[in-house]
Design a protein that fits this description.
Blueprint lengths: L16 H16 L25 H11 L4 H14 L6 H14 L7 H11 L4 H9 L8 H13 L3 H14 L5 H13 L2 H12 L8 H20 L3 H15 L1 E10 L3 E7 L5 E2 L11 E5 L11 E8 L5 E11 L6 E11 L2 E10 L4 E8 L8 H31 L4 H9 L31 E10 L6 E10 L3 E5 L6 E5 L26
Antiparallel strand pairs: 1-5, 1-7, 2-3, 2-6, 4-5, 6-9, 7-8, 10-11, 12-13
Helix pairs in contact: 1-3, 1-5, 2-4, 3-4, 4-5, 5-6, 7-8, 8-9, 9-10, 10-11, 10-12
Length: 527
Amino acid sequence: MTFGNRFALWPIRPVPLSVAIGLLIACAAQAHADQPAAPGSPAPQDAIQIVVSENDDPNVVWQEYFATHNPSPQAVREAARKLMNESDRQPWKRAHVIALIEAALRHGQVQPWMYEALVIAMQADNRPAEEIERAVMSAAEFAQNSMDLMYLGVYLTRMGLDARALKVFRQVSLLEPGRPEPYVHGLRTAQRLKDIDGIKWATLGILGQEWPREQADVVRMAVAAAREVLDQLRSAGRSKELESYQQALMEALRRDCVVLVQWTGDADVDVMVEEPSGTVCSLRNPRTTAGGMMHNDPASQFGAEASNAHVIRYVCPQGFDGTYRVLVRRVFGKLTAGKVSVDVYTHNGPSGGRHLGKKLSLDKDEALVVFDLHGGRRKENLQEHQVANAAVAQAAVRQGVARHILAQQLAAAADPAVAQSLAYSRQSNNSQRYWPFPWVPRGAVGYQPVIITLPEGANLAATAVISADRRYVRITCVPLFSGIAEVHTFNMATGDTGQYSNIGTGGQGYGGLFGPSQGGGTGGATP
């Protein structure tokens, strides 16, 4: 089934259902046009030659056809498209579209577009919601990861199948407890259903996650929903359920470890946290798969009144047991007294926690803080996360190495004899002068000239990086002094070649470049 790349639901301009299925089938046609048939299968047919009438039973017609025929994927797509186009004038043919796709699926002719086309045809034919739901859930067979299931859940909500969508979101949260998306979509779906159990699950999941300031409205939405549920339980006299939910909320608000780095002055400080799983959390990588998140918070939020106060906060709601390493590095500027304040909180929550604080001197521009977390609530296999993160890092390294190897291979493939071969083929005394492809008999490779501009003289490249607090800008300047030392020319029409040396700058000037007596400097052009 085809879904978008984001969870945002954008308004779509309505189009006729026949056009929708036609576009859907056309999008899949090119990708599967050249797909080979399975080994041992009968030769596919080019077109489906069958005539249907209003009195025919669609299920019987198409079941018998696929039992005795093996149409090609292109023929199945074309038949479905033709029937759906004709259904605008003959609505009874929508049942044949449904029967055709179902029969193809039963006989192993599965194509990715079929499930969504089947759902659209069922909606057009006013089929029961339970039947449409079963067709949509059949697409779960193609789900390769939890993200595919998320797309499926969002698609279900768009169709109004909220009850099934909520179950899908809860399934995704079981597969990947650290993902925040299923809880957000699950809360909205549960509120539409007025499902108290679903709201409780979603609010606990949202409050158990760490969210950036840009998404603070998600936390406020969860808090408001949790308060509403508490009021409903209290008014209904369900005291045991109320107490259990309150304890679950307190547990969700607890944070396994929090690191607070504060300083004053005009300095810019970077903070990086290496987690036991091998991931590194920083302002450049604010959220990690281990559950950590880095915040650049306003100093006033922590009671600091100085205008030059800064705060960076690392939070891991549910962390792995193990050793955490915090690297504090001064990038530029001066710190007040040359020190930063580092506070480490473990098992921090409404009922308190453990706190360790220290002033660190950054005389050598960096300092390392190491602490251990015991009793972390992340109970997944740590070694599996370490192996997965190592595999991701190795893949990135291999990708970078592959680019360098490809560049070297392309450079090595450049044959300097190609121009000479082409010039030789165009000489007047060559018997192959009028051959339309003169370079083919000599076994050389042809090149197409590419016009580029070469910088000469003094050039300056500059890049700017804004500090995390948006108060400073670091500028890196790269000056470049270049000159053209030697030029080889080649005339595409006549094949004449030439060489010019001693041209460019560097004290030699441009003498002789535009003629024997023009230009200044001591250098010259020598053909």
